[in-house]
Amino acid sequence: MRLKKFLILTLLSVLLFSSTIKAADDDEFENEGLVEENDERVFDTDETDQEEEGPKEAYVAPPFQKPTINEKDTYFLDWFEDTKAIGKKWFKSTAKKDDVDQAIAKFNGEWAIESPSHIVIDGDYGLVVKTKARHHAIAANLNKPFKFDGKPLVVQYEVKYEEGQECGGGYLKLLTVDPERKKISEFSDKTPYTIMFGPDKCGMTSKVHLIFKHKNPKNGTISEHHAKQPSRPVSGYFEDKKTHLYTLIVHPDDRFQVLVDNVEIISGSLLTDLDPPITPPKEIVDPEDKKPDDWDDREMIEDVEATKPEDWDESQPKEIVDEEAQKPDDWLEEEEALIPDPNAKKPEDWDDEMDGEWEANKISNPKCEGVSGCGKWKRPVKQNPLYKGKWIRPKIKNPAYKGKWSARLIENPHYFEPEPYKQLAHFDAIGFELWTMSPQIVFDNILITDDITVSRKFASETFNIKVDQEAKYSTATNPSKGFFNDLIAAAEEKPWLWIVYVFSVLIPLIIIGVIFFGKKSTAKHHPKKTDTETQDDEEVEEIEEIDHEEQPEPSQEPSRSVTESPEKTPPRRSSRSSESRSRSDSRGRAQKPAVTQDDLEDDEAEPEVDETSEKSPKSRPRRRRAD
User: Fold this and answer.
1) Treating both helix axes as pointing N-terminal to C-terminal, what angle do 2-28 and 482-493 enclose, rounded to 10 degrees?
2) Tens of pLDDT along 579-615?
């Protein structure tokens, strides 16, 4: 019976884990309405069931299914169908970086359009960073410039770090329309951009960048404004070696959203949630305002009228020798506190000419243990009662103090009422410009549109299918890790799931512990051998003590227990409860010796003491009957 209960509890725990993962997975794709409710991400349900029921087979990559999105309906679209697009659609940079050594000035990193290292979909290609420890730059023109004229901006692309990432970027730059840019191949780190968006990591710092560049219409200066980083950890995007979908949405009402794998991680307003704010201050410090020469901002000053007391002796030291100290009787002056180690031996390879004269290491003198000390005794020092230190003038409040000076505020001549979305600069090209210490970074399925529905559909036809196939590939090549990897991945996306995991394991363990290790039996109830109602020992003792305190006069009538013959106490019982009753009965019915008339007369002269309470501190010993 217990084995059946254990199996049932184990099954319930597994079902709870599975339902938790399923719920977390479903929540990801319902966030912000980016994926339709009826959208099915499973590539082949029947095939999955067969794999679970039948023997494991080698993974077979399904063929790539061409998306149905029309490129003409977008500003930019590329799922890298053409493996020879570098030089036709994408152009590697021929520029050089400024202010760096000539050996690393060139953007000499290698790019290729090819399949990932692990093929999960046959015929699915991406833009791959092939080299490490180099500068990489590549760019492409849009089908038409994007203008911030009332429609949302949606930027979406995939990144996969096949070998993880030690230090390097993966962000995309939206290049500002620039009449001076003649060729897209001139793209470099100095090329103006409107927005920079995407992942970046170096060492222990992992980020998802979102940087807006904004031009002040009053003075023409361009400044960077950063969105806050997500509160959730993002290091897993660089370490799990899986494909991740990065989505940026900038709404006409100045709202922005950043999503990873269709889950929102950053959101805010262009007006209030950027650092530094786009809105300039209305007032600024007057740069021409100077502090007057006669402005005294010293709150406290020295009292120039104060003089050093005549008895102030600055020559007295802080500590003096204690002349009253006496050498302890057990002090061993002839012994040294440290002595050479008698067991130390000179190394065989020790060369006195090269290494110097060899000396054994010193150890504590064993003769000094348990005594006050060894070596030459010196009197200790003590605090000098005459010490006062160097005299300094006391400070007083400055009568000329005017307060802390600060420059006056004036109206900001560069202030303007911002309309961030409308004031963002138009862009007509995109580019990847990065340094990386890890190769095999795969970019894929890049989309720029003004229709959220289009981005949702494109993700369902590309990313959703790819993620499912990567999971199947991982299960086929590493079946033992699939389930636990899902648990960890779900908890990284939703940290509160760790609490669910703990309770999912803890509650069944508690139930199992109660079933298998709980109290198996209870003490048997022993019925009383008399129908007379009795009270618990504690209650009897308490009542007797109260009665004893309330009786001011001794009783003149002998108690019934003195004259009556004692009753026999019930036999000892094995249980604890029966023993307590037995003790209670025995106290109430204890045998007493025959009492003489002389004893009764003696008792009348003394206060009555309750002999039934053995624990009472006021009780006195019983009188013994004289033989």
Assistant:
1) 50
2) 444 444 444 444 444 445 555 455 544 444 444 444 4
245, 155: one domain: yes
Q: What is the extent of the structural domain holding 480?
A: 2-61+470-516
Q: Do both 206 and 269 map to the same domain?
A: yes
Question: Is position 586 within any domain?
Answer: yes
Distance (Å, whole) CA 429 – CA 182: 12
Q: How many domains does the chain have?
A: 3
Asked whether residue 95 is assigned to any structural domain, the reply reads yes
Task: Convert the pLDDT of each residue in 54-67 to its tens digit.
Answer: 445 688 999 999 99
CATH of the domain at 117: 2.60.120.200
Q: In Å, what is the CA distance from 39 to each residue of 18, 158, 396? A: 21, 19, 79
Same domain as 113, residue 8: no
> Is 405 a member of any domain?
no
pLDDT, residue 474, reads: 87
What are the φ and ψ backbone dihedral angles of 484, each rounded to 5 degrees?
-70, -30
Q: Residue 392 burial (CB < 10 Å; 0-12/13-18/19+)?
A: exposed
Residues across the chain = 627
Phi and psi, residue 116, nearest 5°: -65, 170
Regarding whether 505 and 489 lie in a shared domain, the answer is yes
Shared-domain flag, residues 28 and 8: yes
Distance of CA 71 to the CA centre of its chain: 44
Q: Is 30 exposed, middle or buried (0-12, 13-18, 19+ CB in 10 A)?
A: middle
Can you spell out the DSSP letters for 211-274? EEEEE-TTT--EEEEEEPPPSS--THHHHS--EEEEEEEE-TTSEEEEEETTEEEEEEETTTSE
Three-class DSSP category at 275: strand
According to DSSP, residue 162 is labeled B
**Cα–Cα nearest to 615, from 548, 521, 529, 531:** 548
Q: Is the pLDDT of residue 90 over 50?
A: yes
Instruction: Tell me how many degrees the CA angle 564-566-571 measures, rounded to the nearest 5.
Output: 155
Residue written as token pair 């022993």:
526
